[in-house]
Amino acid sequence: MFRHMMKGKIHRARVTEANLNYVGSITIDEDILDEVDMLPNEKVQIVNNNNGARFETYIIPGERGSGVVCLNGAAARLVQEGDVVIIISYGLVSEEDAKNHQPKVAIMNEKNEIIEMLGTEPASTVRI
Question: Is 57 annotated as a binding residue?
Answer without folding.
Answer: yes
